Amino acid sequence: WFQRPDPHLPPSPRRPLPIFGHLFYMSSDPRTQFKGWRKQCGDIYSLYMGKTLVVVLNGYDLIKEALVKKADVFSDRPPFFLDKTIGLEDHGVIFSSGALWKEQRSVSLSILRAFGMGKNLLADKIQEEVGCYTNYLASLKGKPTDIRVMTNISTSNVICSILIGHRFEYTDTEFQDLIKKLGALVCDQQNVSLVHFFMWLRHLPGDFFKAKKMSVNMNAIMDALSKFLVEKKRHIEDANDVCNLIDAYIIERNKKLKAGISTTLNDRNLLKIMIDLFGAGTETTSTTIYWCVLYMLHYPDVQNKVHQEIKSQIGTDRAPTIQDKSKLTYLNAVIMETQRLASIVPLSLTHLCSEEAALGKYVLPKGTYIMPNLDSVLHDKTIWGEDAMSFRAERFIDNNGKLEIPEQFIPFSIGRRMCLGEALAKMELFLFLSAMFQKFQFLPPSPSSVPELSYVSGIVITPKHYEVRMIERK
Ligand code: HEM
């Protein structure tokens, strides 16, 4: 409490409390709080979560310096308490580090590419799912409905078709329950930060910090996916016979073992990769769709313009395909503006400084947690102009009517740890939203009750639940 701040470390917005550091200063809406702290301290500042030093990075240049130019030291992850509770700490892709992460990431990426991520093969599969989804929306016959869970199930079906070669019906109550548990996991993260830094708190009676609820949800997801793993796992030699990620992973492992190459590919990492992709691939894409529909309720002119573009470039006799993507400039701009303004993963995922390293004018000790504040780039007035907090898709279109994507558009982060599913997410966003705006007009439950643009803060920023009417266009 009486120590002077270390001049080699970035400044803190407030003097840390003994033992707890800044934990009790954290607000339930870090987005607004972090903006204020940037104004006060500049682009880089220190927070203490208990004893752990967490350095928040703001602005494109500083985030690029850490995650791209100094990727060798800023690409590890700190341990994640929920992985500890399921006994899979430092496994899989999202929360692993070092050589194990490198191998798991490169194998997962090559499997996703083999399944057609970024190519037509997968686009056809997504389009089939989109067909089921829009039919389901049509069956609601314009009744005010919250589309969140069914959108989650639909985007989850895309990832599940890769993981286990299977899709689920929107009415499947067991799967609905699993999806709700995943949603709660993503939203409850904020409450649990205290437990993350003081693991012993989860042994206290009651569940004040929701840590027990989160462990139960995480275990339920793990149990469901390990059941699929046991069901689908089989002896497979022939690469032409691959039905899902499980097959592809096993073939890759066997290849390495046969060639006498030492490998981290094993059942535990496979299970964790399934959990990682299921978690990361479901909530993110569907939340972006959920935001986009909400923005369209607020900006009916934009919605009409999107529909007119689809009508003039593709018509209404067939569903848009991935080959149509380059024709729909305005829709692409609307999707990017949604991602920019909603900034759904505002603090990215935490990185770990693996060695002592210089950053800006400071020297950060080994073990420092790094929070890249993507919000600070996606909402930066010096990049996007004074109207950075308004929805204006035209900012992504140049004077010749072509798409213009500034390098500061980083909703998927940057550097070696940037989103593994970016190509898949972009395909999904285009195919879902183009089909939705082609087929329906989205309206608020009543003209006088447009749902608010308010959100719930978690790892992912989700709009508060809202209802919408989908009127089929003739
Ligand atoms: C709009 C949708 C999405 C957004 C905005 C998004 C955003 C992000 C962000 C910000 C990160 C953290 C990067 C970092 O630590 O620097 C990340 C990591 C990751 N994402 Fe996504 N993501 C999306 C969709 C997906 C999808 C569909 C998948 C599934 C295939 C996926 C899989 C992953 C994985 C596995 C990581 C961890 C990468 C690593 O640690 O090496 N994401 N994503």
Please tell me about this protein's structure.
This protein is of the alpha+beta class. The chain has a single domain, classed as Cytochrome p450, CATH 1.10.630. Helix content is 47%, strand content 8%. It contains 16 helices and ten strands. The strands form four sheets. A four-stranded mixed sheet has the order 1-2-6-3. Strands 4-5 form a two-stranded antiparallel ribbon. The chain has a two-stranded antiparallel sheet with strand order 7-10. Helix 5 runs parallel beside helix 16 and helix 7 crosses helix 9. The termini are far apart. The mean pLDDT is 91. Bound molecules: protoporphyrin IX containing FE. The site of protoporphyrin IX containing FE (HEM) has 25 residues, from helix 11 and helix 16. The site of protoporphyrin IX containing FE has 25 residues, from helix 11 and helix 16. GO terms for molecular function: heme binding; iron ion binding; oxidoreductase activity, acting on paired donors, with incorporation or reduction of molecular oxygen, reduced flavin or flavoprotein as one donor, and incorporation of one atom of oxygen; steroid hydroxylase activity. Keywords: Heme, Iron, Metal-binding, Monooxygenase, Oxidoreductase, Signal. It holds the Pfam family p450. This is Cytochrome P450.
